Amino acid sequence: MLVLEAKLKGETQQFELLDEAIRTAQFVQNSCLRYWMDNRGVNKYDLYKLCKDLAANIEFPWCKKLNSQARQAHAERAWSAISRFFEHCKKQIPGKKGYPQFKRHQTRASVEYKTTGWKLSDCRQFITFTDGFKAGQFRMWGTRDLHFYPIDQINRVRVVRRSDGYYVQFCVDVERNEEREPTRHTVGLDVGLSHFLTDSDGNQVENPRHLRQAEQRLKRVQRQVSRKQKGSANRRKAVNRLGRAHLKVQRQRKDFACKLARCVVKSNDLVAYEDLKIRNLVTNRHLAKSISDAAWGEFRRWLEYFGKVFGVVTIAVAPHYTSQDCSNCGERVKKALSQRTHICPHCGYVADRDHNAAINILNKAISTVGHIVTAAPDAENACGESIA
Ligand SMILES: [Zn+2]
Fold it and tell me: What is the distance between the terminal CA atoms of the chain, rounded to a whole angstrom?
């Protein structure tokens, strides 16, 4: 699955119609959730039926305006939130189970269409929304890649509202696979605060400077927001600025994570990293830490994505004792967080703390995988044969 994104250009009044569509989609989704809460043993098909009833109900005339497949898509969203919650309960994951939440009104929101309710122009530069809201034709910015795919491969179209405008996303049904020569090289990655990452060869990647700068800027804009009077136009403007500042950070982070992950995956046959629970970390009070955690989470998602694309094995190992154990002799060497160097009293091995951890991570991964078939002709085999 591939997602292509373009920015929409149109009249103010057209965007108001898109807002209506988004609001209706949320209404459908929330109604489904409410129905599930109020009734026992509701399944996905009950929710589909509810969508039909909503459209027929004269009390909610706006529901009929939304494309029928879009109504279904939002029932599916509600259902996936519900089943995710059940899944968490069943697996008895400690902590919050993620009870499905109602969609609140906020800037970032979206409406999802399937294969109907929209139409692309032949030149692929315009999109027309054809459902009951009659938002009409929009020009799209950044659709060059759209030419490569036939229209019947597009199985979802999403309109996403952000602080700086409206975007359309096309979900294209393709498996992306790329050729890669095996490098016979494996790597372990350790992430930390002082460096973005340290690998098992001792290479380090610094924290990107723009994250630090963005953090300063976010703080400043946040202060501006809190100084403005509630409900005033100035406050609304400041809130919008804050939203844009967040967007900018997100985009820079994505760019950094994506490039680095691609580079790491392309030059290795196996990539090992710690299985950190990012969700617990991001709530950390220190902004600096939460920013680098978010970047790490993004980086990990791209690692796994490119791992699939290039047929490279990616393994998340349990993080226990990776920084304490000696990577040379295996003895446990306790050290405080402030101690940046690993000095082993048992075998005399000295290394940078993160470097030592990265080697441990790689060793852990290799011990779980068995041997690695680097010369396998294709990705499926490489994974299948190497798992002992
Ligand atoms: Zn040692």
Answer: 29
Residue 313 CA to ligand 1 centre (angstroms): 28
Residue 326 Cα to ligand 1 midpoint, Å, equals 5
Residues 136 and 201 in one domain: no
- 255/381 same-domain check: yes
- Let me know how long the chain is: 388
Residue 125 pLDDT more than 80?
A: yes
Identify whether 11 is part of a domain.
yes
Query: Would the pLDDT of 290 be above 80?
Result: no
Q: Is 239 within the bounds of a domain?
A: no
User: Who's near 151: CB < 8 A, 6+ residues apart?
Assistant: 120
Q: Cα(342) to centroid of ligand 1, in Å?
A: 9
Domain assignment present for 219: no
Pairing of strands 2-9, 197-199: unpaired
- Give the whole-angstrom CA distance, residue 140 versus residue 8: 5
Say whether 124 sits in a helix, a strand or coil.
coil
Separation of CA 367 and ligand 1 centre (Å): 18
Range of the domain at 299: 186-209+248-386
**15 pLDDT above the threshold of 90:** yes
Assigned domain for 140 exists: yes
The rounded Å distance from CA 195 to ligand 1 centre is 24
Which of 232, 222, 293, 301 has its CA nearest to residue 261?
Answer: 301
Distance 330 CA to ligand 1 centre (A): 6
Q: How far is the CA of 268 from the centre of ligand 1 (A)?
A: 27
> From ligand 1's centre to the CA of 353, what distance in Å?
13
At 95, the pLDDT band (50, 70, 90 cuts) reads confident
Please write the tens of the pLDDT for every residue from 57-84.
999 999 999 999 999 999 999 999 999 9
Ligand 1 geometric centre to CA of 320 (Å):
17
pTM: 0.71
User: 357-373, pLDDT tens digit by residue?
Assistant: 999 999 999 887 654 44
Ligand 1 mean position to 371 CA, how many Å?
Answer: 24
- Please tell me the predicted confidence (pLDDT) of residue 289: 60
